Amino acid sequence: MADPVISPPEVAFASPLEHSRRQLEALLEVSEAIAQQRDLPALFHDLAGRLHSVIEFDFLTLVLHDPVRNVMRLHILESRVPTEKVAGMESPIEGHPSGWVWQTQQPLVIADVDEETRFPDFITRIREHGVRSMAIFPLTTAQRRIGSMGFGRMAPQGVTDTELQFMQRVASQVAVAVDNALNFENSQAYQTQLARERDRLRVLLEINNVLVVSREVTEVFRGIVSTLERVIHHDYTSLALLDPVTGLLKIHALDFPGRPGMIKREITVPRDTSPAGHAISTGLPLLARGAELERYPSEIIATLRSDGIQTICCVPLITHGRTFGSLNLASRRNDAFTPEDVELLRQVSAQIAIAVENALAFKEIDALKNKLAEEKLYLEEEIRTEINFEEIIGDSTALKRALAQVELAAPAATSVLLLGETGTGKEVFARAIHSLSPRRERTFVKVNCAAIPSGLLESELFGHEKGAFTGAINQKIGRFELADRGTLFLDEVGDLPLDLQPKLLRVLQEQEFERLGSNRTQHVDVRVVAATHQDLAKLVGERAFRSDLYYRLNVFPIQIPALRERPEDVPLLVRYFVQIFSRRLNKDVQYIPADVMDALSHYSWPGNVRELENLIERAVLLSPGQELRVPLGELKSTSVPVAASGVDPSSFTSFPSLTSATSSIPTLEEAERQHILRALKQTQWRIAGPKGAAVLLGMKRTTLQARMRKLGIRRPV
């Protein structure tokens, strides 16, 4: 408080004319001060200095009426003596001289406080401060009564009529000035409030614009941070989303400008030990300051506290009555986040909740769209390559034994390991397992581990994110994701690279993995059927295959018999392939010579069903008419011993290319006779009809009867 100017001694000895001149000059100076000042403390400090030249006083007060509380409040006190009174002191209207002046609109002059009987409490207080006389004048404009202005002296002294008139004139001018200053303060407050409201509405609009154009959670978050930091001071921002499966909170996005690497992204925190979890549980904003943060023993809270964070505000994200996350702000200031800030964040969170839910939905839709696109491409590829078998062909004991194991394994969700030589139809067995399982309505996905370069196999199995490696220009969904809730067939699993086997083992055991270039765990429900022609147990012993992965794959092994182990199935397969390729190649092959069928049935087939299929395709293509012409000479280079099959090698003697020169060679006529006799015995000597020998031998009834007459074959009596 500035010291007022002490009254000059010449004031008391000036002539009346000189005194009037000085009063007029003082009034002009008061007008100048009023015109120049809009700040009440500065105005009264200026007035005190100017009025001391014409009137004697020791303190000057401004007391205004508060219409809301209906009290008199001290706003300004200019005094040359120390005082404990401070601006803001309130007094009731009744029993206070300023209240009396405000009510009556009359000046109050107290020449000697010792003689004043009114206002006893007030008089007692001012007597303690040495005040002996005072004069109080109403401050009133044409529109309203404002309050009062008082002059006080430390000695008993009355007020002359001239001084009274002068003080009233000063009070009338001061009333206008105070009214203008109050109006200016109100207008400034309104402007500040309007500017704040404008900024907050602009924040809501800008966030709305961000939410409209952004579909990614990270983009939405960046837009939120850049907008909020202009109106609400904060040092840390994060977005916590509730994982409905685990019940944990995942920090999907965060911003810590001062320490960008201090907190890692994509962290998971317990729900019940974090303020964000508390806000989500209650559905109400949470504001925690200082020591209150110690109630949350979360690692991330400890990290923030170590960096000086004093206040945290968590606002729940609620949409359609469901709370699924929170917007979290933190500040190093202890007084951060006013009620107005919290209300703004509550409004912002309502927008963010819709946007984040939409972003997550769009992300899920995009993932499903990408998955469907991958499935479409995969299925189109499957259609182009076409399945080799519509069903498993054969009626042998060895095949039935394997199919019985398929029927046992198919309904379960356990892993199956198909063992067999190349070309035995392991993929057909895998499809049979899928078709007989509860997953038959979902996708059957196959991967040939030997056909894909080892450097690309991980991406093929598990997928990759955009930019995960050079050339990864788009996100790729792996085969495991494509096979979710379906079956994945891993062909030639023995060729799986050793460094990739632990990741496959994790998927088999935990049903989870991460794409290349991502730290987000993907959860799948996949039934794995593996196949190999190699001896995995031997590879385990050679440390070329992990033992734990082998045991995990070998839960239910199925041995698929080689074609040489089921020679009785060869005629059925031959007829099946002839029908398939005749339609495909637009041929009219209708019957198969008996000698050809006999030779095919007694061949060892080292390439198994695949070799037989390829041979029949060429035979149909080379056959000019209705009779199948098989290039049996092509089998010479691939012939192997067939003793294990239990078939007499001498049955190949009609075809020199199929046997060695040292074999006993029966005549062609005898070989044909024996072949027809076997067919007749199998059909119980039925010649015609769908189950007759003619159909079994692939020839017309009349042709068979002519051959029987020529060979002297008659039905036994």
Quick recap of the structure?
The protein folds into 4 domains: 10-186, GAF domain (Beta-Lactamase); 214-362, GAF domain (Beta-Lactamase); 391-561, P-loop containing nucleotide triphosphate hydrolases (Rossmann fold), CATH 3.40.50; 565-711, Helicase, Ruva Protein, domain 3 (Orthogonal Bundle), CATH 1.10.8. Helix content is 43%, strand content 15%.
Account of the protein in words:
The chain has 717 residues and is an alpha+beta fold. The model is unreliable at 1-13, 384-390 and 637-665 (pLDDT under 50). The protein is 43% helix and 15% strand. It has a 6-stranded antiparallel beta sheet with strand order 3-2-1-6-5-4. Strands 9-8-7-12-11-10 form a 6-stranded antiparallel beta sheet, sandwiched between helices. Strands 14-15-18-13-19 form a 5-stranded parallel beta sheet. The longest helix has 53 residues, at 161-213. Helix 2 (16-36) runs antiparallel to helix 3 (40-51) and helix 6 (161-213) runs antiparallel to helix 7. The chain is rod-shaped and about 170 Å long. A hairpin with a 6-residue loop joins strand 7 and strand 8. The protein is built from 23 helices and 19 strands. It folds into 4 domains: 10-186, GAF domain (Beta-Lactamase, 2-Layer Sandwich); 214-362, Beta-Lactamase (2-Layer Sandwich); 391-561, P-loop containing nucleotide triphosphate hydrolases (Rossmann fold, 3-Layer(aba) Sandwich), CATH 3.40.50.300; 565-711, Orthogonal Bundle (Helicase, Ruva Protein, domain 3), CATH 1.10.8.60.
Looking at this protein, list some descriptive labels.
Beta-Lactamase, Rossmann fold, 43% helix, rod-shaped, 6-stranded antiparallel beta sheet, 4 domains, single chain, alpha+beta, disordered N terminus, 717 residues
